[in-house]
Design goal:
By secondary structure, the chain is mainly α. Helix 1 packs antiparallel against helix 6, helix 3 packs across helix 4 and helix 4 runs antiparallel to helix 5. The longest helix has 50 residues. The mean pLDDT is 85.
Length: 171
């Protein structure tokens, strides 16, 4: 009976450490997906500013996205409904992006700065701002993809290996 309890405990330990490795690995994937969807959104904003010349709140309200990025858009829409200025609504929404998305502090700052400056210049200035932001985020996205490729399996395997090692020590 004692051995059975140790065996079950060991299996639970291995499963939980593997799950922890999976969660960390998934965070890397979510970061890449969020950055990709953010780039699509910035391209959409640029296109709408260039060709339709609509105000930013209309552009955001009409943008459709069914993914992790939807949380960010919903936050902006809610903040705009509460009569906040666009830059304040954007900044507050950036601060509410969950840590589970794996975004780094400097990435959040870059996204926040983009929203603060957006709408404060003429059309050409806003288009230039979109282009600059896209190029900066593209370089971050490339680094995030490389990190995901290198470390995703590593975290998963480390979690599993750690669980097995602890289980062997406890047995």
């Amino acid at each position: 009976m004692k051995i059975l309890i140790k065996l079950v405990g060991s299996l639970l330990l291995i499963a939980s450490s593997t799950a922890m490795g999976f969660v960390i690995s998934r965070k890397l994937s979510m970061r890449v997906r969020f950055l990709q969807q953010y780039l699509q959104f910035v391209s959409y904003i640029e296109t709408e500013i260039r060709y339709s010349q609509r105000i930013l709140s209309e552009i955001i309200n009409e943008y459709k996205n069914e993914s992790e990025f939807q949380f960010f858009l919903t936050e902006i829409k809610e903040n705009l409904k509460s009569r906040a200025s666009f830059s304040k609504a954007w900044t507050d929404s950036v601060h509410k992006i969950p840590n589970s998305y794996g975004l780094l502090r400097q990435e959040k700052e870059l996204i926040s700065e983009f929203g603060q400056e957006l709408g404060s210049t003429d059309i050409d200035g806003q288009i230039a701002l979109c282009n600059l932001n896209r190029s900066l985020i593209n370089s971050i996205l490339d680094a995030a993809k490389e990190e995901k490729t290198k470390k995703s399996k590593l975290y998963f395997m480390l979690g599993t290996s750690f669980g097995i090692c602890i289980a062997v020590i406890l047995l």
